[in-house]
Amino acid sequence: MTPAEAALAALMGQGRGRLLAALIARTGDFPGAEEALQEAAEAALVHWGRSGLPDRPEAWLLRVALRKSIDRHRRSARAGAHAALIAQLGAEEAALDTAEEIPDDRLRLIFTCCHPALEPKTQVALTLRTVCGLTTAGIAAVFLDSEPTMAQRLSRARAKIAAARIPYAVPGPGEWPGRLGAVLTVVYLIFTTGYAGGPGEEARDLCDEAVFLARLLDALRPGDPEVEGCLALLLLTHSRRAARRDAAGQTVPPGRQDAALWDAPMRAAGLAHLDRAMARGAAGPFQIKAAIAACQMVRPGPDWPQIALLYDRLLSFEPTPVVRLNRAVALMECGDMVRAGGELTALAAELAQYQPFHAARAEWLARSGRRDEALAAFAQALTGAGPADSAFLRARIASLAG
Q1: Cα–Cα–Cα angle for 302, 304, 307, rounded to 5 degrees
Q2: Which residues of 190-219 are buried (b: 16+ CB within 10 A; e: fewer)?
Q3: For the segment 55-96, what is each residue's pLDDT rounded down to a tens digit?
């Protein structure tokens, strides 16, 4: 790799989202911005390879991308209608020569990618592509789609943003709470996709990408308790990654993990973010989930009574079957088998196709002494389980059968 290629790869890998956000902020053209940035990157390979790196490579790329946008508008059949925009872009290009720093518009980019007009899968894919800079092939692998299918999804999303005139802006105070929840949910979905061990782009860990996005939101919107709570949740969960599986490849629940394998600095950072968030006195779902993650890491064992109370509180924000299932597991761990069993029975129809439900029910049956029913439920739980969870379930089956 030549020095020019190495410099461009580093810049596009780390700063692509920042550059794209700055370009969209100036042109208002979401679909055209990516094309212009790609053309600028191709020009950089030629120019930097011949003349060496410029003093400010990021500004150089943005300036060239703006020129590409101006040229595109001039070649357009509606060039006359774009005269004011062309003049404005020319002024923006000239201003880059004297600007000491390019403003960071990534917060606007994130909110655009996570606009409620786009379906959740598209929100996640577009965020990974534009803000994180993953390739279309890498995102397709995450969703088990073909690359052409994912390319079409991304293209339709950009076209919808343009056609629906979705504003490239951070929502106003009245919209902020609802819109922020959608953004944090996308970040959390990216993390859980990586946590589940789905195939992703080589050398791009989706958990790391989600942590990057949460840190970015915290930097761009400091002092928001839910952003801090989301970041705390991701850090606490991610700090356990080295202890999640044993030597045989089986899933190890947090309460049974070797705490010496946890990333201590990451755990400490997560707890610090959680403490700051809770001190603000505005509890929200991500703060509660982070508190649950912290309680799971208490030693000598998880604080299950506190976890059960936290799930009670979480239900007031997210009254979903999955939260109720998690509360039932906490009740079971507290020894309240009657209430746990009643909740599992009530959830049977809604969660009939949800693999973790069958694993939880199997464990409840085993602890209730209903061995044959537990064996059948564990066998059912194997359907749809990943390799590590399957190994754990098979070990439980072997233990019961023995």
Answers
A1: 105
A2: bbebbbeeeebbeebebbebbbbbbbbbbe
A3: 888 888 888 888 888 777 666 545 444 445 444 544 544 454
